[in-house]
């Protein structure tokens, strides 16, 4: 039977698809109206996703249009698809902020630059596309997302999640079996199903060459599930007699995988030169058609060979040669013999400019290799470095994996597999890591390479399973090194201590004491960098191994050094966590805010959103202690936003237990604590339990449930974890005194006496004075309360100062000194009430009423607290109030200036103001958001 293909020039109406048309129409309306829209069309091959993109393009009147499709052969080339999208607009790159401009130029190989975080590339792409759309609305259509290179897919998903009010629309089309690690999970999607029976029959009648029997039509529609491509191809594939019902149809119908076979047969019927040219087109990059004709010259092919493919409906008729449907491209390449593929890739390698596209040339050479070839492997390794320099870590990993497979010498092959595994870790694609380590394992004979492999495996475990398994693996890597590499040893011990502090005992095959002992036994760096974490790690090890008194001086010196360092650098395992733990442990709030704020600024400038999300979340705690609950909530939302932007699955309330406790949200605290306990058990994060105990203790103190607060505080007292072990001591004293447990209060005060005086900071001494007052005699208590209030007023700890005022007021009232009590209680009440600290406000109010106060004690409306704003509105409002420009706010939050303007307009309306100068006043805050984190 002769095989016919559907003609490329055939124009058919779009049948059915009312839901899809409506969604596309709403998106275009939003884009034209100055807003943004994103839609992901999901469905099986041939279901009509590309046809819907055609429809969107036809409807995009008055809108700029950019359209690309993913190509399987280009997957190893990092940022190749993004480059195709942005190429028409690259003349605008010089208008981007310097950091974004450098990131985009590095990603596209347009300038020599250090590797940058892919999310900074994402921000640059977002800013550039938004700038284009600000002049005329822009619609980007991206077909076959499942064949995009990983870097481009991640960047486009990032852009899609950051759009809001930018006159910019994105429509993606993706196969339903796409394994994208949830990249597009947070954006609207629409599943595209087969056509309804009536529409499917109508489409089949349009493509059938003659009479279509009704029974045959029903069977074809049922057999294809209404898949439009299957209907079109069957209409062309089946004979006239079969469609008319005269001759039986094949059993089963050629749908699904058999469609590919249909395409293969269509190609097989063509002449040899045409088949060779089709294979060449299938293997060539889509954005460099000149290379096709240079390679065709190498193979002795002429342009005339394409004419038969156009006539057969395999290629589109147009100025460029391209396949009518992506399935044809993949079926052509899949059907070719290994020998034919090697011959084609050899021709493409010969036709590729080694200076202009060395990475593509290296890949074609590798595909042309019949076996191990060290010269080709070295070319691939060099290409991997180009990919790394552009931030294309997935591409780097693919080049290195291929290089390793072609490497002849076992040790060198193992090193390349290890490098590929590291690149996959950096890219966030953890699935290939362990298989690559297994491939490397037989040739890991040198201690340094074995240690490196263990470190990579531990990092993969950290992401894939349990944190409490990591310390033992890092210590195993240290043992493998056996003092042969001091710097790597210290890096491994940093990661071991980091994981151990978060895991707490019990750990897998080690203990905190063993980890601390290994840190203390390791040689010191004779010439450490000023930003080095080594001294801080040393201090935490001393804390674990020899007690608090041995650690204070070292941790204080480490924090002081970090505060004065000319530059700070974050680590692969974010440094902000250890800094915050150490700063709390020595009660140094100023070091905490400054160093973690600077680390956040470093992460922000590099687009390192994972580290940034943790740093910002840590800064939220400082806002809580300073009584700025709305600001803390905004920071938590910002941290969640960054985590979601990188596809990190988060449970948003996980970090908010302390905030909810201060707000008096009893049910939310208990729900969050249950979640924290479950996550701690599942992932080996014992520190979460300590954070949960702290939140519960604050909640119960606010509600005057002193026996329950005492129970939580005693658990933390016995654990004595760095930071939280000290933070809970004044809470334990208060709970024990109020619960009548003098013995527990005495133990806690004794530990607090010893440690606070060693630390010597206003925070430590202010809490100590308050605790002494709770335990002391009347003659001393008043002076100690006043000392506590004065000391805590020297540092940004307004909430702690207000708690001291509350306790002092309670003490004064019980001694019948009502007028003096009213002064302290009113100040405490007004602070708690303004902040939204409901339980402490109620506790202060009831005490104030007991002094005989009236009128002013009625609960004030907190319309200025900022909680009626959405999370991102609060973020924008607080940053605008700090004096940042719209462009600076946009860069800081990884959004666009138009989105900032949109949110500010809503903030003004909700707060009833007309100027950003009045935002801080309207939010009922003192200070500014800029105090919390340097920009």
UniProtKB/TrEMBL annotation:
<dbReference type="InterPro" id="IPR036388">
    <property type="entry name" value="WH-like_DNA-bd_sf"/>
</dbReference>
<dbReference type="InterPro" id="IPR027417">
    <property type="entry name" value="P-loop_NTPase"/>
</dbReference>
<protein>
    <submittedName>
        <fullName>AAA family ATPase</fullName>
    </submittedName>
</protein>
<dbReference type="Pfam" id="PF13191">
    <property type="entry name" value="AAA_16"/>
</dbReference>
<dbReference type="InterPro" id="IPR041664">
    <property type="entry name" value="AAA_16"/>
</dbReference>
<keyword id="KW-0067">ATP-binding</keyword>
<feature type="domain" description="HTH luxR-type">
    <location>
        <begin position="862"/>
        <end position="927"/>
    </location>
</feature>
<keyword id="KW-0547">Nucleotide-binding</keyword>
<dbReference type="InterPro" id="IPR000792">
    <property type="entry name" value="Tscrpt_reg_LuxR_C"/>
</dbReference>
<dbReference type="Pfam" id="PF00196">
    <property type="entry name" value="GerE"/>
</dbReference>
<dbReference type="InterPro" id="IPR016032">
    <property type="entry name" value="Sig_transdc_resp-reg_C-effctor"/>
</dbReference>
């Amino acid at each position: 039977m002769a095989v016919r293909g559907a003609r490329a020039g055939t124009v058919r109406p779009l049948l059915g698809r009312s839901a899809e048309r409506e969604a596309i129409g709403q998106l275009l309306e939003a884009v034209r109206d100055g807003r943004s829209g994103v839609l992901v069309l999901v469905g099986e091959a041939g279901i009509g996703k590309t046809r819907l993109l055609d429809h969107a393009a036809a409807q995009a009147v008055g809108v700029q249009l950019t359209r690309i499709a993913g190509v399987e052969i280009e997957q190893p080339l990092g940022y190749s698809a993004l480059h195709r999208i942005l190429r028409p607009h690259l003349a605008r790159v010089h208008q981007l902020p310097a950091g974004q401009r450098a990131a985009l130029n590095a990603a596209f190989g347009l300038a020599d630059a250090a590797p940058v975080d892919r999310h900074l590339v994402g921000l640059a792409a977002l800013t550039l596309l938004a700038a284009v759309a600000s002049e005329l609305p822009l619609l980007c259509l991206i077909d076959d997302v499942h064949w995009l290179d990983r870097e481009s897919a991640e960047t486009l998903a990032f852009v899609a999640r950051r759009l809001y009010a930018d006159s910019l629309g994105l429509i993606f089309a993706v196969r339903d079996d796409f394994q994208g690690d949830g990249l597009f999970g947070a954006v609207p999607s629409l599943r595209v199903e087969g056509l309804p029976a009536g529409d499917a029959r109508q489409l089949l009648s349009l493509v059938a060459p003659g009479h279509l029997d009704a029974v045959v039509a029903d069977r074809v529609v049922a057999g294809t599930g209404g898949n439009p491509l299957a209907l079109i191809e069957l209409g062309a594939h089946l004979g006239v007699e079969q469609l008319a019902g005269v001759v039986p149809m094949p059993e089963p119908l050629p749908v699904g995988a058999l469609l590919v076979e249909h395409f293969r047969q269509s190609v097989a019927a063509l002449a040899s030169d045409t088949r060779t040219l089709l294979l060449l087109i299938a293997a060539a990059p889509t954005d460099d058609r000149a290379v096709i004709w240079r390679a065709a010259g190498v193979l002795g092919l002429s342009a005339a060979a394409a004419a038969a493919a156009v006539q057969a409906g395999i290629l589109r008729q147009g100025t460029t040669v391209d396949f009518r449907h992506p399935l044809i491209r993949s079926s052509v390449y899949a059907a070719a013999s290994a020998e034919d593929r090697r011959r084609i890739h050899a021709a493409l390698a010969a036709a590729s400019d080694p200076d202009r596209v060395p990475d593509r040339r290296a890949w074609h050479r590798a595909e042309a290799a019949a076996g191990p070839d060290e010269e080709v492997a070295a070319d691939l390794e060099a290409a991997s470095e180009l990919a790394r320099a552009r931030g294309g870590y997935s591409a780097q990993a693919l080049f290195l994996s291929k290089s390793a497979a072609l490497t002849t010498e076992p040790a060198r092959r193992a090193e390349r597999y290890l490098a590929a595994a590291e690149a996959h870790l950096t890219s966030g694609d953890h699935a290939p890591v362990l298989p690559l380590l297994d491939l490397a394992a037989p040739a890991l004979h040198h201690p340094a390479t074995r240690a490196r492999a263990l470190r990579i495996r531990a990092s993969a475990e950290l992401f894939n399973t349990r944190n409490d398994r990591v310390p033992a693996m890092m210590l195993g890597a240290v043992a493998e090194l056996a003092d042969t590499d001091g710097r790597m040893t210290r890096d491994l011990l940093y990661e071991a201590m980091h994981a151990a502090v978060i895991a707490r005992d019990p750990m897998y095959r080690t203990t905190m004491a063993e980890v601390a002992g290994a840190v203390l036994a390791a040689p010191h760096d004779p010439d450490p960098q000023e930003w080095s974490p080594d001294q801080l790690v040393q201090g935490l090890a001393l804390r674990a191994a020899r007690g608090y008194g041995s650690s204070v001086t070292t941790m204080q010196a480490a924090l002081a050094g970090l505060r004065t360092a000319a530059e700070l650098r974050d680590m692969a395992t974010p440094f902000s966590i250890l800094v915050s733990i150490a700063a709390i442990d020595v009660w140094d709030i100023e070091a905490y805010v400054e160093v973690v704020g600077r680390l956040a600024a470093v992460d922000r400038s590099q687009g390192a959103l994972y580290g940034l999300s943790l740093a910002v979340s840590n800064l939220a705690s400082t806002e809580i202690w300073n009584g700025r609950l709305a600001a803390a909530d905004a920071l938590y939302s910002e941290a969640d936003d960054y985590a979601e932007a990188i596809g990190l699955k988060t449970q948003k309330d996980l970090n908010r237990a302390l905030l909810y406790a201060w707000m008096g949200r009893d049910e939310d605290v208990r729900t969050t604590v249950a979640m924290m306990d479950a996550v701690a058990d599942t992932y080996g994060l014992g520190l979460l339990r300590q954070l949960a105990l702290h939140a519960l203790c604050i909640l119960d103190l606010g509600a005057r449930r002193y026996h329950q607060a005492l129970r939580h505080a005693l658990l933390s007292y016995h654990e004595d974890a760095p930071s939280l072990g000290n933070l809970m001591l004044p809470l334990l004293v208060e709970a024990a005194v109020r619960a009548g447990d003098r013995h527990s209060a005495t133990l806690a005060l004794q530990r607090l006496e010893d440690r606070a005086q060693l630390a010597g900071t206003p925070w430590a001494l202010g809490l100590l004075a308050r605790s002494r007052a709770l335990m002391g005699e009347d003659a001393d208590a008043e002076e100690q309360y006043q000392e506590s209030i004065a000391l805590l007023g020297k540092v940004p700890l307004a909430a702690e100062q207000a708690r001291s005022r509350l306790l002092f007021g309670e003490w004064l009232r019980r001694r019948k000194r009502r007028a003096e009590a009213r002064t302290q209680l009113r100040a405490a009440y007004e602070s708690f009430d303004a902040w939204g600290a409901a339980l402490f406000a109620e506790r202060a109010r009831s005490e104030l009423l007991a002094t005989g106060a009236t009128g002013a004690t009625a609960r004030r409306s907190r319309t200025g607290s900022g909680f009626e704003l959405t999370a991102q509105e609060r973020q924008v409002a607080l940053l605008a109030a700090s004096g940042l420009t719209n462009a600076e706010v946009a860069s800081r939050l990884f959004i666009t200036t138009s989105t900032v303007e949109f949110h500010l307009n809503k903030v003004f309306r909700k707060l009833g103001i007309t100027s950003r100068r009045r935002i801080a006043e309207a939010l009922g805050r003192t200070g500014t958001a800029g105090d919390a984190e340097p920009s």
